[in-house]
Amino acid sequence: MKRIEKSIILSVFTILALATTISCSDKLDTQEGQLNTGDLDYTNTDDMIDPVIGAYYEFVTRGWEEPLLLGVRGDDVNAGGEGDQQPFSDTDRYVYNKDYWMYNSLWNVHYNDIVNMNTAILQVENFKEFAEGDDIARADQYIAEISVLRAWFHFNLARVWEDVFIITSNQPSTEVENGVATKEEVMQFIIDQMDMAIPNLPDARPNERTDIPGGVTRYTAYALKALAYQELENYQGVADAAGAIINSGKFSLYPDYYQLFKKPGELSDESLLEMQYSDFGSATGDDVYHLYAPFGPQNWTPERENASSGWGFYEPSLKFIKFMIDRDETVRLETSVLFTDSGIAEIEDDGYTVPSFVSNTTPSGDIINDYARASFASGKHYLPSVQLTDGRNDYGAGKNMIVIRYAEILLMYAEAITQGASATAISADAAVNLVRERAGLSPISGVTQQDVLDEKFAELAMEWGIRYYDMIRLGNTDELSYDGRSFSAGDQYLPYPQAQVDALPLNATPVDRNTAMNNVLRQLN
Predict the structure, then answer these.
(1) Are 115 and 524 in contact (CB under 8 A)?
(2) How many other CB atoms are found less than 10 A from the CB of residue 113?
(3) Each residue of 360-400: pLDDT tens digit?
(4) E strands within 230-278?
(5) Which of 38, 52, 166, 508 is deepest in the core (most CB within 10 A)?
(6) Rounded CA gap, 439 and 427, in Å?
């Protein structure tokens, strides 16, 4: 059962400003998949923020397996070695086990959080009945914020499973009876929801918000809209939505790519959606963490003593590393990959000259030793040990996780132009070159679709499966057959979790599957 300590969660989003005004005894509980509403006084609209904070809590409390499973099938990422969590390694090789607990968890937790988001919306609507003046507009904003977070969960589910439920109720029996929606219907649902949300959201960057710093704004909604249009291959829609973000003039790339993924880069002007975590700078007491250990190396010598190592479950692929060396990448390669000595030797054994800056010692002084599961680890999920709060030793403790950032918007926009969309902001060349400039690369002209895809590979590797879903969308699935892997047409989507489907026949037709899946979400009623 998730428990929301308002004094903890509010302080994450308000930089401790609101924490001193709220009692630690005030709580919102999650009871059987739904936020408990019993303690809310809807006539007191000062408390209308409570369900919104609850929704953000649902958003940030991800299982460690969720980002790993969403991203592992791309040619930028490997699952690490064999043995522990073998079905995860199999998934990396497109061998799927519908009984695997990770599949069930991703499905179940995402839908559980969707239902909790719906409860939070209902709570805000109850407050709105007693609202007057500015509080009415505030209620509409809060509903819009939660709708954006809810859309992100639907987006993930549809990319992973294709046909899934659209749930907008906290008692979804009717929606379940209607069966699953197609992926295209889910993406259109997201677009329609964002169109309704945008007018009610702040015209600001997330880091400009003072009520909930880092919270959703209209540009977060534009970003989700652009992503949904991209999945529909409606590239003019992508250009229009991404162009609105660019034309706002509010966003820029954080100048230090290495620090972007560490504490100095948290809530930068590049961030459109970010999961926030903190131990509030204290050696003991409350914390809101994501478990980053699965991303980390199993064996290291940290610059700061007693910092814990990781599990080695998320390895940048050798294909990606060679791609980056061929491009003469420096800062993005050094940022994205933590190297072991054995990994460096493996690159050399394949005939590559390893750049002089590549070392098993990070720029922050942590030494990545050889370990059993992998030869490399993800640098984007790495927090230098010297940036840990004194007394805190968990791997990556307190590090935020960026979900959507401006670099992705620029590259989506550029790709849309190369796909035939009319420019609605800057040129495709200008968008790509902004990203290349930060990486220390020379500008290019006459940008092609392949140029953009290469730039996305270099810039966005290891982030939320972006590379995998791009290759699927564009039919470039030959790229996914690498290093002994063989991708075929039927490997695009994961099978429905067996725990969610009661005796689904192996030869089920779409009608049969739809009938069987009607029972999947009844547990959420």
Answers:
(1) yes
(2) 23
(3) 999 999 999 999 999 999 999 999 999 999 999 999 999 99
(4) 271-275
(5) 52
(6) 19
